[in-house]
Model the fold of this input.
Amino acid sequence: MANQIDYTHPLVANTDIISPSKRTNFYATAARDLDILGGIEIYGEALYAKRESSQERAAQLFFTIPATNAFNPFGVSAQPVIVRPANNQQVVETWQVVGGVKGQTGNGIMGLFKNGAWDIYAQTSSGEGTYTGTAILADRLTAMGNATRNPTTGVVSCPTPTVSGGTCLPINFFDPRVLRGDYTAEEYNYLFNNANEGSTVYEQTVVEANVSGDVFQVPGASDAVKVNLGAQYRTYSINDVPGPETLRANIALTTVAGITKGEDTVKEVYGEIEAPLVSKKPLIEDFQVNLAYRFTDYDSYESNSTWKATANWKITPEFAIVAIAGTSYRAPALFELFLGDQTGFLGQTSIDPCINHDLSNNAILKSRCLAAGIPGDY
Done:
């Protein structure tokens, strides 16, 4: 029925409310105590995960069909709104391998870091995703929209017969059958069954060393002053390649994007000290101060430092006052830093104030458009 949703139509009835997905996961871990130097342990772990997901839904297909189109009954440009599929599929695979060696500091290292631990490890990981979706090719819509009828033979044909991946197929977008989304197999394949698979690969490698332990005791404190020191080196990269039709800006009714590719290296050092200072005094069950500092250096961006200071005054075992101050810092993520060229999904009529400005009642707008050399019927 016109102007009403047919909930039994396949494009509507098959719409997903919750995206279906299939997941596969493998995880393995191993460790061995070498029984040397107070108990050194080597360890490792491996992870693999795969997710396959898809979404089926209905959407609208709308574009301006010229007055000269063979099927346009109005004699002026028209924009029919047609039911169409808008399906997407994704496959994401991730793996990670970690290997390291760790141990206890025992009586300390050069008199420091007593009763603590140390850890040195390396990690490498990769995540790769492929994605596809209903791709409506712009050159196919344009060629189809310009279809004309031979006045002698009555045959409808396209002035541009050759389009990406095939031959132009004139389709009557004013036919009620097409308007409600009942496409023939040939029409469906021409409009929607177009290969346009993209892929994204993230890779990361991390090496880190860390040591912690007691350094000295403050008289009257509840525990020893503890220190944690470490350094980290990591490299990571992105390579996002949209589908071929997206790359050549041939996807209709959506944004298009270029290749996003780049890599970065980050070097960090950090330290933290936790100092119990007073305990078991009047109105002071326990008082501790925690200080943390981190210096970060990005090859692609800049270096910066952050800090955090915390004071924890426990008045009684039940009541405490905590004060915290600090800074934060975030460099651009890889996708932000190396983002390829993109287009927005706005028509010129949405962003150009001088479109047909002779029809505007705004005298200032009209004068400025004319001063810029833009005719009133532009």
